[in-house]
Specification:
The complex is a heterodimer of chains A (257) and B (100). Chain A contains 11 helices and no strands. Chain A has one domain. In chain A, helix 2 runs antiparallel to helix 8, helix 3 runs antiparallel to helix 4 and helix 7 packs antiparallel against helix 8. Chain A is 66% helix and 0% strand. In chain B, helix 4 runs antiparallel to helix 5. Chain B is mainly alpha-helical and 100 residues long. In chain B, strand 1 and strand 2 form a beta hairpin. Chain B has a two-stranded antiparallel ribbon. Classes of the chains: A mainly alpha (257), B mainly alpha (100). Chains A and B meet through helix 1, helix 2, helix 3, helix 4 and helix 5 of A and helix 1, helix 2, helix 3, strand 2 and helix 4 of B.
Chain lengths: 257, 100
């Protein structure tokens, strides 16, 4: 199982820890954890390259692309920020959209807190490394020691590969030239499709996605660039918090670092 | 302006990550909060797909992007790796743009 993640189609894809087999313990587990972490780190490189390229195509400098990967370090939010800016959105709208997409990392932090037992400055570092991949790799382990190892090893490996790949992608796109002639304007929404598909489990999710897409198109003529996406997010936030109803299980979802 | 977005967005995302360890568990564990944090990625990504495929400022247009994203969707449904999905979409849009 490559990287120990989900179906292995995407790094971090569909990593529902509740259904996982217990990790084979303990003989040589540290090397296994490190090998898995490196595998996941390498796999995220593909995202990193495309993120760097799309960021530059959307008008960011290579330095800004790398700064996002180092400071924001959560993939779907980075893609979203770049997408909103590329569509002419405001800085505030782009930042707010990215932040809304990053809220799920808070849930990972909650579930990891009792596992990691970190204090002081280390806690600030652990928060930064709290992403889909590190959470998925840690929460699947039965043994707390292995889980801590998996968290740190995966977080550090993904951070290293993600940033190096972002730089490579950004410099590559800089050298390539006209993004529209290369079809990079279609690459950005296709990247969102690839991030979205593994999240769709069942008709409810598909309906939710179709409704959100339709609402975004209705809002497009009415609001300045970038704000339709944020508007859809705000509607979902209000409806989701106000509606009573059934519990939706938390999920560790694809891709989105 | 771009740097402002980069720094504000990074700060917002970092605070989300930090909140998990700092906020009382009852807040984040509430079914409503879990439902919203589960649904937000689906909703936002779908909105981004729609607006980036046919949006152009405040106008809706059909251009080679649609063919590209369609091809990317097929590749993704066939479980192609991420990079291939993106490359198929870009290549298709570029070819259609040349032909049309």
């Amino acid at each position: 199982m490559r990287g120990g993640l989900g179906d292995g189609t995407y790094p971090g894809a569909v990593a529902d820890r509740g259904e996982r087999q217990p990790a084979p313990a303990p003989a040589g587990w540290t090397s296994g954890v490190v090998r898995d972490a490196l595998g996941v780190g390498l796999a995220t490189g593909a995202y990193g390259v495309s993120f760097g390229a799309l960021a530059v195509a959307a008008g960011l400098s290579a330095g800004q692309a790398v700064a996002l990967s180092a400071l924001m370090f959560t993939g779907a939010s980075q893609f979203a920020l770049v997408g909103v800016l590329g569509a002419g959105g405001s800085a505030l709208g782009a930042a707010a959209t990215a932040t809304l997409l990053g809220t799920r990392n808070g849930l990972y932090g909650l579930r990891l807190a009792s596992l990691l037992h970190v204090r002081g400055p280390l806690r600030l570092l652990a928060a930064h490394l709290t992403i889909d991949e590190s959470a998925a790799m840690a929460l699947g382990r039965r043994d707390p020691g292995t889980a801590r190892w998996a968290f740190w090893a995966t977080g550090v490996a993904v951070f290293a590969f993600w940033n190096a790949a972002t730089l490579a992608g950004a410099l590559g796109a800089d050298a390539l030239g006209d993004p529209t002639a290369l079809g990079l304007d279609a690459a950005a929404p296709a990247a969102f499709v690839a991030l979205l598909l593994p999240l769709l489990r069942g008709r409810g999710d598909v309906g939710l996605a179709l409704g959100a897409g339709a609402l975004a198109l209705v809002l497009t003529p009415l609001l300045p660039g970038g704000l339709p996406v944020l508007g859809v997010g705000a509607v979902a936030l209000v409806v989701g918090l106000c509606l009573p109803g059934r519990r939706r299980p938390p999920r560790l979802e694809a891709s989105a670092r | 302006m771009t740097w402002l977005a980069v720094l504000l967005g990074a700060l917002g995302c970092y605070l989300c990550k930090l909140a998990g360890g700092l906020l009382p568990e009852s807040v984040l564990a509430s079914p409503r909060v879990q439902r919203v944090t589960g649904a937000l990625p689906v909703v936002l990504l779908a909105a981004l797909v729609a607006t980036q495929t046919v949006g152009d400022g405040r106008a809706l247009v059909l251009d080679p992007r649609v063919a590209g994203v369609g091809a990317g969707l097929v590749a993704a449904l066939l479980r192609a790796p991420f990079l291939l999905v993106v490359a198929v979409a870009a290549g298709t849009a570029a070819v259609v743009r040349l032909l049309v």
